[in-house]
Every structure is written in C-alpha cells, then in structure tokens.
Amino acid sequence: xxxxxxxxxxxxxxxxxxxxxxxxxxxxxxxxxxxxxxxxxxxxxxxxxxxxxxxxxxxxxxxxxxxxxxxxxxxxxxxxxxxxxxxxxxxxxxxxxxxxxxxxxxxxxxxxxxxxxxxxxxxxxxxxxxxxxxxxxxxxxxxxxxxxxxxxxxxxxxxxxxxxxxxxxxxxxxxxxxxxxxxxxxxxxxxxxxxxxxxxxxxxxx
Length: 206
Fold this sequence. Notes:
This protein is α+β, with helices and mostly antiparallel strands and 206 residues long. It folds into 2 domains: 10-41 and 182-201, no CATH class; 45-178, EIF_2_alpha (Alpha-Beta Plaits, 2-Layer Sandwich). It has helices at 10-18, 20-40, 57-60, 66-84, 87-100, 105-112, 132-155, 181-202, and strands at 45-54, 113-116, 121-129, 164-169, 175-177. Strands 1, 2, 3, 4 and 5 form a 5-stranded antiparallel β-sheet that branches. Strand 2 and strand 3 (121-129) form a beta hairpin. Helix 2 (20-40) runs antiparallel to helix 8 and helix 5 (87-100) packs antiparallel against helix 7.
C-alpha cells in the first residue's frame, strides 16, 4: 500500500520506458475497442446548413468607432440567437417532426440542433439524427425559418435595417457523423495507455 502512494522516482520512469511494448500493445487494443464501439453504436449523423450574416458596419456607422461597432454587433447578434432558438422558429420544425418522428421542443433544443456563429459571416445550423435525411431536412428548415423570422423582425424595426441575411447552403447539405471515427480511436488509445501506465507504476516489481 505504501508503494502505491509513494512519490515517483527515476526508477519509475525507467520502468515506464522499458515497458514500451506494453504501451504500443495498449494503444492498439484501445484503438480497436474504440473502432468497435464506433461501428456497433455509431454517433448520429450531422447535417450543416449555412446562413451568411452581414451587419454592414460601414453603412450602419459611417464614422469609425470601435466601441459603437462592438456594441452594435453584440446587440444584434444576441437578438438573432434568441430568434434562432425561439418557439416560433422551432415550432415550424415540429410540423415535420410531430408528423414523422414525434420530436419535442426540448429534444430539438437539447439534443438535435446546434448553432455555431461568429458575430458576422457564416452562421452554421447543425442538426443531428440517426437518419441522415432527417438531419438534412431539420438543418435546412431551421436555417430557412431563421432567415424568414429575422427578415420579419427587420421589417418590424426590431433588428437594425442594415443587417442582411442570405441562406447560402440549404440543399445537398454536407453530412457527416457528429463525432468522427478518429475521436473514438484517440479516446480508446488514450484510456488504455493511461491504464497501462498505472499498471506499470503501481504493480510492485518482484
């Protein structure tokens, strides 16, 4: 027991280096197990739709003022993020999901949909599902409904009139697994390497 809780020494490092065959074997076994998990229980597919957002800073603020720029970008971005996750936008996706797959609003917010956006340029609307076609439909619907709702808010004067949006990708969306195979391989190898290190260090030498 005292050996387990003792401070590491130079001998411990030497033992680790000498066990390089165990490290290689552990990494291979971990990678194989990670690959097996990936193929037996694969992560859902992820589709990505893209909306180009242009705040037109030069038109909104003809005079160069960094403070005004930042406040303007932060304010309008926050408004549009709220719109993207609003009940009104997500309810349009539920028209499809309730009829076909019985999704709920909570499932869309917590599991199915993901939003990645800078303050300006391409906003990416991701949707996850085990069926790649369903993921593609959800992502496309979400991006288009978002743009339609924001345009309505611009016309109503709730969002700055200089903001311009365009759906740049909503058909034939790129689809891939939400977690790549490489992540499973890396995780499996890392876990088994760690276990092998503990085995070498905390197994009392004869």
